[in-house]
Amino acid sequence: MGYEQYDPMNSSLTIGRIMGIPIKLHLTFLVILAVFLVAFSMNDSEILGFTLGFGALDTDWGTRYAFGATAAIIFFITVLIHELAHSYMAIRYGVRIRSITLMIFGGVATMEEIPKKPGQELKMAFAGPLSSLAIGLGAYGLMLLLTPIDSNSILLEGMLILIGLMAFYNIFLAAFNLLPAFPMDGGRILRSALATRMSHLEATKKASAVGRFSAIAMGMFAIWQFNIFLIMIAVFIYFAARDEEQATLVNDSLEGVNVVSLMSTDVKVVHPDTSVQQLLDLMYYTRHKGFPVVDRGLVGMVTLEDTKRISMEMFRFARVRDVMTSPATTVMPSTAAVDALKLMGDKRVSRLAVVNESGSLVGIITRKDFLRVVDIVAIRKQRANWGAPPGQVPPPPIPPTASS
Q: Would you call 244 a catalytic residue per the annotation?
């Protein structure tokens, strides 16, 4: 399907590494693999001279299913190659690839960041469809080369169908991914073209709007055809386009901002020997859902979610030290806000302790702090740009002297 900036693939299994990139299988991949196996094994229809399955092969069902399984596995290997092509171009531009995940809708390469230079994103986006097209055309050429061979071999007939399947579906994959439905590859190509004439954020908004409209149109067509799989793809594209726009807004809003401008310095802490009941009372009265744990220095972080792991039998005796996360995830005041937000995502935590060079606790930063700044900056830019001369950029925000 393409690539993205944040990795939603929590339920996945790492099966290896290629070019240093973790390759993962999402649980939904097993479902779609089984669907493709059955479809390839039983289908006997033809489109444009391509036989789309082994259903008409004059052999036993076990052989047809063996061919179907082989075709399904090879097809998803070509999907992996599609994502590796994106990743190779990204690495050339210095982008770190967190993982490649195969799932129900194909594949997703998760990147640390997406280059804002239109030319770089254009090459990254086009690399995937180009690789699929090359595989498809190569397979088509091989099919034409082998077709004239006169043989009654079931193996050769099955191989011709297999090669034709790879040709048809890879050409289809390339064409489908080039549709301007952001954040698919075609949508990213559209954004890179728009970004040559406007800001990266505005280009993202327009490409996202096209993506959502395309998803709605695809969904209406899918409902008319009663195609459940196409409906799922339409829903995926719609929400992916929205999430990509929000992620871009966050990154643009936090650009040039450090943790020191966002953190709260009036930090309430708890001791490891504090009872969990006292902790919950403190949370109730302060309306905070998490606290740094301090005992002659920072030793951990405890949150409301941590307390839910305690059984009813042990609740009366439980202390903060029994449930806290240790060590705490920390950043420094000079850390870029974007990097701190990425760290939150990587560690799957909702707050970070801010420490100075000596390791002493000086503040705390939560997801709400990031969201608050994003909302303020978005409104500020909107008001600052209203009525301003074309091309004029509003001045950067003044860092606050205190946080709350």
A: no
- Pull the structure tokens for residue 326: 């240790």
Which of 4, 46, 83, 202 is flagged as catalytic? Answer: 83
* Residue 56 covered by a domain: yes
- Our count of domains for the chain comes to 3
Residue 290 backbone dihedrals phi, psi, to 5 degrees? -165, 150
pLDDT in tens, the chain (404 residues): 666 655 544 567 888 999 999 999 888 888 888 888 998 999 888 888 888 899 888 888 899 999 999 999 999 999 999 999 999 999 998 888 888 988 877 788 888 777 778 889 899 999 999 999 999 999 999 999 988 776 678 888 899 999 999 999 999 999 999 988 888 899 999 999 999 998 888 888 899 999 999 999 999 998 998 888 888 888 988 888 888 888 888 887 787 788 988 888 888 899 999 998 899 999 898 888 889 999 988 999 998 888 888 877 778 788 898 888 888 889 999 998 888 888 888 788 888 999 988 888 999 998 888 888 777 766 766 555 555 444 444 444 544 443 33
Give the residue from 254, 269, 285 where a domain finishes. Answer: 254
In this structure, the answer to whether residues 170 and 232 fall within a common structural domain is: no
State which residues form the domain around 21: 2-178
Q: What is the pTM of this model?
A: 0.73
- The side-by-side arrangement of strands in the sheet containing 97-103 is 2-4, 106-111, 97-103, 21-26, 12-18
Does 27 fall in a domain? yes
